[in-house]
């Protein structure tokens, strides 16, 4: 079963392009959206929280280090508004950081189901799809 929607939140436009292509090659989602600003992604989620749960994002890939609103800031905002969302979304940190502090901090959020070190691969996408959606 294909997912309806996956969001990628990363300030690196080249990474967004590549990750979108990787997800397309994995053939696990009907729609893939990218957000170079975490604040825009939060706005999108709040605006679309009225949607039918089938159309709300199934999976979010979130970078940590971004200007203006970091991945950590996004998580705090997400945590405060997610109770209004129509379904539970699988949230994965997708970062180039290999610092134990970042990994431990990500795992301290119950909303974060996985910590993935960049780059995102087709195999990782397929494994996540199988683990959480099949």
Based on the model shown, name its key terms.
22% strand, 134 residues, five-stranded parallel beta sheet, 41% helix, alpha/beta, 5 helices
Gist of the model:
With 134 residues, the protein is of the alpha/beta class. The protein is 41% helix and 22% strand.
Topology, pairings included?
Elements: E1 3-9, H1 13-26, E2 29-35, H2 38-47, E3 59-62, H3 71-81, E4 90-95, H4 100-107, E5 112-117, H5 122-133
Parallel strand pairs: 1-2, 1-3, 3-4, 4-5
Query: What is the H level of CATH, i.e. the homologous superfamily?
Result: Response regulator
Number of helices: 5
Quick check: average pLDDT? 93
The low-confidence runs, each spanning 5 or more residues with pLDDT under 50, are none
The top level CATH class name = Alpha Beta
Overall domain count:
1
Strand count: 5
Q: What fraction of the residues are assigned to beta strands by DSSP?
A: 15-25%
Query: What is the CA-CA span between the terminal residues?
Result: 7 Å
Please state the structural category. alpha/beta
Q: Which H/E pattern describes the elements?
A: EHEHEHEHEH
Identify the overall geometry. globular
Report the major sheet: 5 strands, parallel
Please tell me about this protein's structure:
Helices cover 41% and strands 22% of the residues. By secondary structure, it is of the alpha/beta class. The model has no long low-confidence stretch (mean pLDDT 93). The protein has one domain (3-133): Rossmann fold, CATH 3.40.50.2300.
């Amino acid at each position: 079963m294909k997912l309806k929607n996956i969001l990628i939140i990363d300030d690196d436009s080249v990474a967004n392009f590549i990750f979108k292509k990787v997800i397309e090659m994995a053939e696990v989602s009907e729609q893939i959206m990218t957000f170079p600003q975490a604040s825009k992604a939060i706005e999108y989620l709040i605006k679309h929280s009225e949607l039918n749960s089938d159309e709300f994002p199934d999976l979010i890939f979130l970078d940590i280090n971004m200007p203006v609103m970091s991945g950590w800031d996004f998580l705090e905002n997400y945590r405060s508004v997610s109770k209004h969302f129509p379904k539970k979304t699988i949230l994965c940190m997708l970062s180039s950081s290999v610092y134990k502090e970042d990994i431990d901090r990500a795992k301290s959020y119950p909303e974060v189901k996985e910590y993935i070190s960049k780059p995102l691969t087709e195999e990782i996408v397929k494994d996540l799809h199988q683990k959480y959606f099949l």
